[in-house]
Write a structure and sequence with these properties.
The complex is a heterodimer of chains A (625) and B (287).
Chain A: E1 6-16, E2 20-25, H1 31-40, E3 54-61, E4 66-74, E5 84-92, H2 93-96, H3 117-121, E6 125-128, H4 140-148, E7 154-157, H5 163-171, H6 175-178, E8 183-184, E9 200-203, H7 217-227, H8 231-241, H9 250-263, H10 267-276, H11 282-292, H12 301-309, H13 321-334, H14 336-344, H15 350-357, H16 363-371, H17 377-381, H18 389-394, H19 398-407, H20 412-420, H21 422-426, H22 435-444, H23 451-459, H24 461-470, H25 476-486, H26 489-494, H27 497-505, H28 509-512, H29 515-527, H30 537-549, H31 555-565, E10 570-571, E11 574-575, H32 578-593, H33 597-602, H34 607-620
Helix pairs in contact in A: 7-9, 8-9, 9-10, 10-12, 12-13, 13-14, 13-15, 14-15, 22-24, 23-24, 25-29, 27-29, 29-30, 29-31, 30-32, 32-34
Chain B: E1 7-14, H1 20-32, E2 41-42, H2 50-60, E3 75-82, E4 85-92, H3 96-104, H4 110-115, E5 121-127, H5 137-147, H6 164-167, H7 170-185, E6 193-199, H8 210-217, H9 219-226, E7 233-240, H10 249-256, E8 266-268, E9 273-274, H11 278-285
Parallel strand pairs in B: 1-4, 1-5, 5-6, 6-7
Antiparallel strand pairs in B: 2-3, 3-4, 7-8, 8-9
Helix pairs in contact in B: 1-2, 3-7, 7-9, 8-9
The chains are: A alpha+beta (625), B alpha/beta (287).
Chain lengths: 625, 287
């Protein structure tokens, strides 16, 4: 707001000369303006002429882009009764928007008309808006309260208030409100109905009101800020007032908002005020929305409703999707009908609102949103809704849906949802055509996927094993899982030796030493017919030898292992110990696969075992098994 | 007399200070009092009597009427009766500036237009002492001759430029307003009636009748009325609603002392002189 010291004020004089007429003016007026000013400058009523009454009138002259403040008094000099003089000051709307205070306006009026007045009126007038000297009555609070607590016409006694009170009250307004404000300080009771478009009327026929001790805080704030010459409130009013309609009651709301923003910071209270407000300013809504879009600010139900109420307006603002999701979530919990309306409002934030709200929306509504393409499967995939079995069973084509999601690369959440859905468990076979890709994703995200899908890998082990064998890096968890499940006799046969070794190598040291891993690997060694199966021997020989020697295998475990060894229970009349039995089985593998001799020595550092093994091999190598 | 409508609005028309409100003041008093025999009788008080009483009181006290201001929406609604027929008469009190503006700017408020959309009769007021008569060619030449100095030129300071809206003769203004009224305001389908009222008739010397005054001083208006193009029936009345000059305190005192205030009123026509203002209304309302 620019400080200006002198504002150019135009002036006119109306009086009687064969009818009430414009007698002098220091500017050219168009016909519409002349017509309006002629009627506004005439006598306010018959009773006005009994005594020395003065009537001040303020009204917009839109056609000329000016605001008029006039002073009308009885023209006693004129013999015809009922004649008046009216001196009118005209301020252009542009200047009216710049004037900080209007208290000096009253001093510019003339008080009598003589021969020189016509010439004087043709001169320029200036208003110094630096002069701030309001001479308000003790009841100014009542006038402020009456004017700005609602939009009804205010009718007060002219015995209690002066033009100073009105100029002070009017001066609080922002430019847009200032230029629409209409007042008259003398109106006969019987002609009040002829002034319905006036905001404020003072009448001699109105009783003096009783004094009120208590007014709302905003009334005191207005007065305090004015008395302290505090322009912060004025700057705030002018900034946001520009976005308001011409309702006077907006002032009370704005002042209260200013208090909760600049004095006693409480954004949530501001939200509530804005929500109660019939037509709040867009600028303030945006300001608050930007404030709430800050990640550190917690959004409560008021702020959620505030932003959702103006979601179409807020389209211009880049609200973070987290914020709009939160709005959707809060409102969907509170009011199902309202969230549906909000979604149908079709704002640019629609998607994120749906995503935030979807978990609390009725199933049929969500399905309809999907069918109408208001949201895509990808959007739903981001919500917990996809964990709901009833959702999957109601989706027209779950497979198509999955396919849709796949196009956009499944994220972990989606996978988790898909791989935990009962729907998919029940309809597992439906996934045949998608299975390779699905398995691929599960393997890539093994730690996030559920047991069910782990099992699925086993069910479709040929896919899984092929995939695993092609992977360069295998997650340790997947490696453990695979080993655990490879113990299945059928499965163990179908996995290539190199794949098993690769998986084994991805195990951590602890897992490598675990009994189940050693047993699985040993079973693979004995059950496989691959020629390179001897490569497993270095991995299992020592640990298994130790397990057997220390009798760490249960009877059942040994029994199962023994079944894979394909060694006769007795060799001739000899009965073997478990260790010998194992060594014979290893020896048989070596004899069958015929690795290089050095290999035998490389398989263990246990000289004794190797020695025995060597002897045994050489002794029996000439014999057929 | 046969009354046509039960609800009637009469256009009270005239330039500023032509005596419209004074006429209404006198009429208000007259109808409410039984001091003289009237053609139309009062048939009941109007609902809103404030303006009615205000005017009647002012007239009774011989106070000059306040000029009617531009925003005025005042009107008098009279319930009158003729024999057994009761009818309502609406007499809006419009400011003289309203009609002056119609002449000068060719503009009038829509609300005024709406008020008279059903009306077919006009009472036009001309202040008998404020008639600006036209200047004939002979008179004009004589005036110019008197202004010419020895050097055969007209000095600028002795002349003013002629402004149509300021210097037009009264008859031109009246004819213009009457034409506009007939063509734009009054109900087109109906026969239109016009009463020309010369107010302040007491200020004339009485040597001519009201009709003769028009013939003599306002020939254009006389011709216009005689052709009956806009107004099929017209009549001229000389009216002294106050009965004298209120600016003269002696006359004012005399008027105040009259036993029957109604008798202050003088209505002059070609045929008669009386105090019954309702006769003008009665003539206007008759079929």
């Amino acid at each position: 707001m620019r400080t200006i010291h002198n504002t150019n004020i135009f002036q006119t004089l109306h009086g009687y000369e064969n009818g009430h007429k414009l007698l002098a003016s220091n500017l050219e007026l168009d016909n519409e303006t002349k017509h309006l000013m002629l009627s506004m400058s005439d006598s306010p009523g018959h009773d006005f002429h009994s005594g020395s009454n003065v009537c001040f009138t303020g009204y917009p002259v839109n056609h000329a882009g000016m605001y008029a403040v006039s002073k009308t008094w009885v023209a006693h000099e004129i013999t015809r009764p009922g004649c008046v003089w009216t001196h009118t000051l005209l301020i252009s709307y542009t200047d009216l928007a710049k004037i900080k205070n209007l208290s000096g306006l009253k001093d510019l009026f003339i008080s009598n008309v003589d021969e020189l007045t016509i010439e004087k009126i043709k001169n320029k007038l200036y208003l110094n808006d630096e002069i701030y000297n309001p001479k308000c009555s003790y009841k100014i609070k009542e006038m402020i309260f009456e004017l700005y607590s609602n939009d009804y016409q205010v009718l007060l006694s002219n015995k209690e208030y002066t033009i100073d009170d009105i100029i002070f009250s009017w001066g609080q307004q922002w430019p847009k409100l200032r230029r629409s404000f209409k007042f008259k300080t003398w109106v006969a009771k019987y002609s009040i109905n002829n002034h319905t478009d006036f905001d404020l009327l003072l009448s001699p026929n109105v009783d003096i009101s009783k004094e009120n001790d208590h007014y709302p805080d905003w009334v005191d704030l207005v007065l305090k800020c004015s008395n302290d010459n505090n322009h912060e409130l004025q700057a705030f009013l002018w900034k946001h007032g520009a976005h308001l309609d011409e309702s006077r009651s907006n002032l009370a709301y704005l002042v209260t908002c200013w208090y909760y923003i600049h004095v006693n910071f409480s954004p949530l209270k501001v939200s509530r005020i804005i929500l109660e407000w019939k037509k709040p300013p867009i600028s303030l809504i945006k300001e608050m929305a930007l404030f709430f879009s800050n990640q550190d600010v917690q959004i409560d139900i008021s702020s959620a409703y505030l932003m959702s109420s103006y979601i179409l307006i807020l389209s211009e603002i880049e609200l973070p999707s987290d914020v709009t999701k939160k709005i959707g979530e809060i409102i969907s919990i509170d009011n199902e009908g309202y969230i549906k309306k909000l979604i149908s409002a079709d704002s640019i934030h629609k998607k994120s609102i749906i995503i935030g709200a979807v978990d609390n929306l009725p199933l049929d509504f969500v399905i309809r949103l999907l069918d109408n393409c208001d949201i895509s499967p990808i959007d739903i995939a981001q919500t917990n809704f996809i964990y709901r079995t009833d959702f999957w069973s109601n989706v027209e084509s779950p497979l198509k849906y999955i396919n849709e999601i796949k196009k956009n690369k499944l994220d972990n959440k989606t996978i988790k949802a898909i791989v935990t859905s009962e729907m998919f468990i029940d309809n597992f076979n439906c996934f045949d055509c998608y299975f390779p890709e699905l398995i691929n994703v599960i393997v890539d995200n093994f730690s996030q996927s559920s047991d069910f899908w782990h099992k699925a890998i086993i069910y479709k082990e040929d896919y899984a094993i092929n995939l695993i064998s092609k992977l360069n890096v295998i997650e340790p968890e997947l490696a453990i899982f695979t080993f655990k499940n490879l113990s299945n006799a059928l499965l163990i046969c179908s996995v290539e030796v190199n794949t098993v070794i690769k998986i084994y190598n991805n195990l951590d040291e602890k897992a490598k030493e675990s009994k189940s891993v050693i047993l699985t690997l040993t079973k693979k060694l004995f059950k496989s017919y691959d020629n390179d199966r001897y490569n497993i021997i270095p991995l299992v020989f020592d640990p298994m030898d130790k397990l057997i020697s220390k009798h760490d295998l249960s009877f059942s475990e040994w029994d199962k292992l023994k079944g894979t060894m394909r060694v006769l229970h007795t060799y001739g009349s000899l009965s073997f110990s478990r260790v010998n039995y194992f060594h014979i089985a290893i020896a048989r593998v070596i004899l069958d696969t015929k690795p290089h001799n050095d290999f035998i020595y490389s398989i263990s550092k246990n000289k004794k075992s190797i020695l025995e093994l060597s002897k045994y091999i050489s002794k029996n190598s000439k014999k057929s098994w | 007399m046969e009354i046509e409508d039960k609800n009637k609005t009469i256009v009270f028309c005239g330039l500023p200070a032509s005596g419209k409100t004074t006429f209404l003041g006198a009429l208000s008093y007259l109808v409410d009092n039984e001091e003289i025999k009237k053609e139309l009788e009062f048939a009941g008080l109007p609902a809103d009597r404030r303006f009615f009483n205000e005017l009647a009181d002012k007239w009774l006290e011989c106070e000059p009427m306040l000029r009617t201001h531009l925003m005025s929406k005042e009107q008098i609604i009279l319930k009158l009766k003729k024999d057994d027929l009761v009818f309502s008469l609406n007499l809006p009190d419009m400011s003289g500036e309203t009609w002056d503006n119609l002449w000068r700017e060719h503009e009038i408020d829509k609300s005024v237009l709406d008020k008279f959309e059903d009306s077919d009769s006009v009472i036009f007021f001309i202040h008998a002492d404020n008639i600006s008569s036209p200047v004939s060619i002979l008179q004009g030449n004589a005036m110019i001759k008197s202004l010419i100095d020895d050097n055969c030129s007209v000095t600028a300071e002795r002349t003013t430029s002629w402004i149509p809206s300021e210097h037009a003769p009264t008859q031109a203004i009246v004819v213009d307003i009457l034409q506009k009224l007939a063509s734009n305001f009054l109900k087109k389908s109906k026969v239109k009636k016009l009463a020309i009222v010369f107010s302040a008739w007491d200020t004339t010397d009485g040597s001519v009748s009201p009709r003769q005054l028009i013939e003599k001083e306002m020939p254009l208006l006389h011709q216009y009325l005689n052709c009956h193009f806009d107004y099929q029936y017209w009549q001229v009345f000389g009216v002294s609603a106050q009965g004298g000059n209120l600016k003269d305190s002696q006359q004012q005192q005399e008027l105040l002392e009259r036993e029957f205030p109604s008798k202050r009123v003088k209505v002059v026509t070609e045929e008669e002189e009386h105090s019954d203002l309702t006769k003008i209304i009665s003539w206007i309302l008759s079929k």
